[in-house]
């Protein structure tokens, strides 16, 4: 039997900067209408929402997939008018947030392409309601794509303009229409001076706001805010790297400061820990796992021994979710089902408890403790005099065996049920990374082997518990902090 515990797909912690919380409003772009064109981040936010205030256009099919208990508020215009006014929408969003809802404002396409999304942001900010946005695929791009219209094509078109057909009234025909558009140039770095020169020649004023956006949406993102007249020189001075996008026009003046690089935390564990948000509110994990847990293949003889050990045990202790899945896989492969799983079950940490519950198993003991010593103390009353077995990864156990004397158990066994496969992830660019998170001594030891050039002196190692802290000191990290107090307040 070969199975992968990666099958759950992308870890939601990777998709969002912060988990949506009660009292917040999230503007989510729904895409052009096909639910498949909603982004994964948008979908993750929608699943957290308790109230969704939505348009009709682009949203209707997606709404069929939101959880049934979510409250839906239809703001959409119906044929022949109706629907909520913009003021009513703004007001209702703030009201829902203040009632404690986790609110999604679901808008067709992208929220900031003719969606009046920025008006909603401005209103909510003025009202003191925290507000975030997840971009969507705009119909300006997806619409043409669905009928095979390429918006650019080498030799035929070097750009495209997206404009509204509604507000033609305000535009005097003889005046430069260029000044009323937002100009977006991709591949903007090399010829920036020529590009800004061309825009000035079209009638845009030198003090028109301009922003150069580099490596957007990655941990290396940065931006430069200036004016059309100054941005080319400033970009050279500040060595803004490609790939970058130039935005020029009044809306570029609304640009905000990019995320602080110290907001990113490098996580090298095989998954983002469930407590990441709690320990580092607002921070974002940069995930570069150094190993991938994979279920081992069981050969029949081993399978028989392993199943026999489980049958003999009085207590199964799970640390994390992978051991739970490993045990269930073993039990199924041995031809058993949940009804014959008789040992008591101890969950060490919230992830083990969650994985057990998801499988329909209620943990008899739940332990949440910052160090293995304290785990031992809490486990001892149940372990005393019995056979304790801990399903674990190959070569990752041992810590429980160390507790043997403390537990007073008759026997303690570790049962390896999956193995770790080394990964060689791309090396992050260290100048953008200040913090690294380790949840086990094994992770600390693997780090300098994987990336010998990592500048340990300029990094702070955040470690879960004293054993991991000790390993970090031994590995040469001068700055080490224990995150256990953040995780277990
Ligand atoms: N924020 C939206 C646009 C809102 S304005 C976006 O980024 O796509 C509404 C206009 O978008 C419609 O009048 C229509 O011109 C266009 N539109 C939106 N979805 C569309 C679709 N699926 N097919 C064609 N046009 C669409």
Describe the structure.
- This protein has helices at residues 12-15, 40-48, 60-63, 86-98, 117-126, 139-146, 192-201, 231-237, 276-279, 300-312, 321-333, 350-358, 372-383, 404-407, 441-450, 466-475, 484-487; strands at 25-29, 51-54, 71-74, 103-107, 131-134, 183-185, 209-214, 222-227, 244-248, 264-267, 284-287, 291-295, 315-319, 344-348, 365-367, 387-393, 411-422, 435-438, 460-463, 479-482.
- The chain folds into four domains: 2-137, 3-Layer(aba) Sandwich (Cobalt-precorrin-4 Transmethylase, domain 1); 141-254, Tetrapyrrole methylase, C-terminal domain (Methyltransferase, Cobalt-precorrin-4 Transmethylase, Domain 2, 2-Layer Sandwich), CATH 3.30.950; 261-294 and 423-487, Rossmann fold (3-Layer(aba) Sandwich), CATH 3.40.50; 297-422, 3-Layer(aba) Sandwich (Rossmann fold), CATH 3.40.50.
- The longest helix is centred in the first third of the chain and has 13 residues, at 86-98.
- Helix 4 (86-98) crosses helix 5 (117-126) and helix 15 (441-450) packs parallel to helix 16.
- The strands form four sheets. Strands 12-17-16-13-14-15 form a six-stranded mixed β-sheet, with helices on both faces.
- The chain starts with 11 loop residues before the first helix and ends with a helix.
- It is built from 17 helices and 20 strands.
- With 489 residues, the chain is of the alpha/beta class.
- S-adenosyl-L-homocysteine (SAH) binds next to helix 6.
């Amino acid at each position: 039997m070969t199975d992968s515990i990666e099958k759950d797909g992308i870890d939601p912690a990777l998709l969002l900067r912060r988990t949506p919380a009660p009292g917040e409003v999230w503007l989510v772009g729904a895409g052009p209408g096909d639910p498949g064109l909603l982004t994964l981040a948008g979908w993750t936010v929608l699943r957290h929402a308790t109230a969704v205030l939505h348009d009709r256009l682009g949203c209707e099919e997606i709404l069929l997939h939101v959880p049934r208990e979510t409250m839906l508020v239809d703001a959409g215009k119906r044929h022949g008018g109706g629907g909520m006014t913009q003021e009513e929408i703004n007001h209702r969003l703030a009201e829902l947030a203040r009632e404690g809802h986790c609110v999604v404002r679901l808008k067709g396409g992208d929220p900031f392409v003719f969606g009046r999304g920025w008006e909603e942001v401005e209103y909510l900010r003025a009202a003191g309601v925290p507000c975030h946005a997840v971009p969507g695929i705009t119909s300006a791009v997806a619409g043409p794509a669905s009928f095979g219209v390429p918006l650019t094509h080498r030799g035929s078109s070097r750009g495209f303009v997206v404009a509204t057909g509604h507000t033609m009234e305000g535009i005097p025909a003889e005046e430069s229409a260029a000044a009323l558009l937002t100009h977006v140039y991709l591949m903007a770095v090399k010829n920036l001076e020529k590009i800004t020169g061309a825009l000035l020649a079209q009638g845009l004023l030198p003090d028109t706001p301009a922003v150069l956006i580099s490596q957007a949406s990655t941990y290396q993102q940065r931006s430069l805010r200036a004016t059309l007249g100054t941005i080319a020189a400033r970009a050279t001075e500040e060595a803004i790297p490609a790939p970058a996008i130039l935005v020029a026009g009044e809306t570029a003046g609304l640009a905000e400061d990019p995320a602080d690089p110290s907001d990113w935390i490098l996580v090298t564990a095989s998954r983002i820990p469930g407590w990441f948000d709690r320990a580092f509110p607002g921070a974002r994990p940069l995930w570069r796992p150094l190993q991938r847990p994979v279920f081992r293949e069981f050969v029949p003889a081993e399978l028989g021994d392993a199943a026999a050990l489980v049958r003999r045990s009085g207590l199964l202790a799970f640390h994390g979710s992978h051991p739970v899945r490993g045990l269930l896989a073993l039990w199924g492969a041995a031809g058993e089902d949940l009804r014959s799983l008789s040992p008591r079950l101890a969950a060490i940490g919230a992830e083990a408890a969650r994985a057990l519950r998801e499988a329909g198993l209620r943990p008899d003991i739940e332990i949440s403790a910052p160090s293995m010593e304290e785990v031992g103390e809490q486990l001892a009353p149940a372990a005393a005099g019995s056979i304790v077995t801990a399903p674990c990864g190959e070569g990752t156990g041992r810590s429980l065996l160390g507790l043997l004397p403390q537990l007073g158990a008759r026997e303690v066994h570790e049962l390896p049920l999956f193995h770790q496969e080394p990964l060689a992830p791309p090396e992050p660019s260290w100048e953008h990374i200040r913090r690294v998170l380790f949840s086990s001594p094994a992770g600390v030891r693997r780090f300098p082997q994987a990336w010998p050039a990592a500048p340990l002196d300029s990094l702070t190692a955040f470690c879960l518990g004293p054993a991991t802290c000790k390993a970090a000191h031994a590995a040469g990290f001068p700055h080490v902090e224990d995150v256990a107090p953040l995780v277990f307040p």
